[in-house]
Amino acid sequence: MVRLSVILPCHNEADNIPICYSRLTDILSSTGKTYECIFVDDGNTDHTLTVIKDLCRRDSRIRYISFSRNFGHQKALRAGLNAARGRAAVTMDADLQHPVSVIPELLARWEEGYEIVNTRRTDAARTGLFKRLTSRLFYRTLNFLTGMNLQKGAADFRLTDRKVTDVLCRCPENDLFLRGMINWCGFRQTTVAYRAENRHAGQSRYTLSRMAALALDGITSFTIRPLRLGVLLSGLFVLLGGAEIGYVCYVAFCTDRSVSGWASLAILITVLGAATLLMLGIIGEYVGRTFMQVKQRPPYIIRETNINDINPPTP
Ligand code: UDP
Ligand code: MG
To answer: Which of 48, 81, 127, 144 could form a disulfide with 44 if both were Cys (CB 3.0 to 4.6 A apart)?
Structure first.
């Protein structure tokens, strides 16, 4: 069994892969460990797959999985973990933002006995203001709603021991939110700080809407707290209704005025309608996800691969 598997999800990274490969082989060879690199072609529209296949011809330690279409970063990571054969697996970006020079430190921590070695980005200045703000909002919301303790700057750059990788591979969830699963599954964990590099070529695929979708996946996979919002809202409206009844009784019995005010009625109807729709939307999110899960579709489809004994995706 190889000692280390390095998993790199790729979406249109043709310009980054050659340099990423050469840095990786330099570092991994210097560690003296047996290793494999698994590139996951996540529905690329450029010549990323050709570049990866070229590497495979030159180096037998390079493996690839090519998806039938774009399934997203998390699914690509999952496919890589499913295929990994190493005693330890490192997941990292293929755009050189995660420095390969950190890998020996991850390995050193693993050899000290840690089963999960997370990483934390320290130099926020290199990251754009927008990315920093949305990332902060993302973790704040997620931690508040789920009660998890995800660190800002946490990324899917980490080492997991075979035991952990096996646990992750056995999880049948469709929307596997890896950062949350890692937090949830326990084991001995530690964190290593690193200075993120700039993206070597191309642009980030994590747009605002993708970040929002990821946050929703995270929230709905780890908590049902939003569903309880309905109970809170109903409590609020009972109080509001009570106050309204009190006011009407007071005006009717204690004054010689008659109760008027279509404006307050209109406001009440609007607010109540908005709250009802909000709750319907939240319930819909959970019902929709349950519906997708019970269909038991595989989370991704592999079009081709050079890995023979690959585990099929858990539906
Ligand atoms: N990626 C992927 N599928 C996607 C989007 C991204 O496999 O649909 C890969 C991408 O090639 C990169 C990693 O996931 O290796 C992180 O993506 P990106 O750099 O766009 O995100 P950021 O680093 O800006 O959060
Ligand atoms: Mg990146």
So the answer is: 48
Q: Which ligand is nearest to the CA of 40?
A: 1
204 in contact with ligand 1, CB cutoff 6 A:
yes
Output the DSSP codes for 28-64.
Answer: HHHHT--EEEEEEE-S-SSSHHHHHHHHHHH-TTEEE
The answer, yes or no, to whether any atom of ligand 1 lies below 6 A from the CB of 31, is no
Q: Is 255 helix (H, G, I), strand (E, B) or coil?
A: coil
**Shortest-distance atom of ligand 1 to CA 10:** 11
- Ligand 1 atom having least distance to the Cα of 199: 19
How far apart, in whole angstroms, are the C-alpha atoms of residue 173 and residue 177? 9
- pLDDT tens for residues 246-284? 888 888 888 887 777 777 787 778 888 888 888 889 999
Q: What is the secondary structure of 275-292 as a DSSP string?
A: HHHHHHHHHHHHHHHHHH
CA proximity to 64, closest of 86, 45, 42, 46: 42
User: Which residue lies with its CA nearest to atom 25 of ligand 1?
Assistant: 206
- Whole-prediction pTM: 0.84
Is residue 22 within 8 Å of residue 52, measured between CB atoms?
no
Task: Report yes or no: 158 and 77 within 8 Å, Cβ to Cβ.
Answer: no
Q: Which of 247, 231, 242, 237 is nearest to 269 (CA)?
A: 237
Task: Calculate how far, in angstroms, residue 263's C-alpha sits from the geometric centre of ligand 2.
Answer: 51
